[in-house]
What we know:
By secondary structure, the protein is mainly alpha-helical.
Amino acid sequence: MSDLQTLFAQAQADVKTLSERPDNQSLLQLYALFKQATEGDATGERPGMMDFINRAKFDAWEKIKGTSAEEAMQGYIDVVKGLMA
């Protein structure tokens, strides 16, 4: 496993130990970066207008379309570090 993957896995563990729940914007950012790092570009149809949560998640993920897995992993690590500071 590469150093980046090791740091990414550690950031996933670290985020679960935060003393406070991150704000919604940070959660969406983490979700999008995680999905981009692990699955690539957003796929499927955009959730319906009344499905607010899943629509926001999809939109956040779609916004970073084209980002490489490595960039997404680094972004996720950086966001977690910021939340832990």
